[in-house]
Sequence to fold (192 residues):
Amino acid sequence: MYNAMLMKTSSSSYLKYRTWTLTSAKALDSTCALFNTTKAAWDAVSVPAQSADPTCTGGGGTSSPTPSSSTSNPPSTGCTGSNATAVAIPDAGSAVYSDIAVSGCTKTPSTTASISVNITHTYRGDLRVDLVAPDGTVYNLKATSSSDSTDNVVATYSKNLSSEVANGTWRLKVQDVYSSDTGTINSWSLTL
Fold:
């Protein structure tokens, strides 16, 4: 951590600290054991992989800069993407993520970017649904509501994402904040 702190700039962020700690861990241990432990720690607290993250291929295994999540889709080429890999939403548990990696988008995201979600849940008011941009900025799509007892979240949201960089890993973050039921992220799509 000390070596990573030496790389600090005025624009430091958790995302940059991830890259700096991985760089430092790789320099300190040629077997990649420290690197892999550091990467696992960042993944455990949902700080996504960055394009600047180093890789380590020493004796302790291989690590690559692909995003960590419960689902993995190939990068989407262009300014749209989708993920149809089901992700279970635990009851009153920690947040779960579904990722879309965007590459090859040559334009700035729209002021009316579209996020379509299909989530099965028996009491949708329990759910908080967020879009997490590649830089870690969180955009709330749906807040919890104790009075919304309707099933499922099948909706399309519009967000101003024009301050974001299009290319990178976009994450749908879903958390069930109350108890007594579970659900599933069935699919979601993003049009920047």
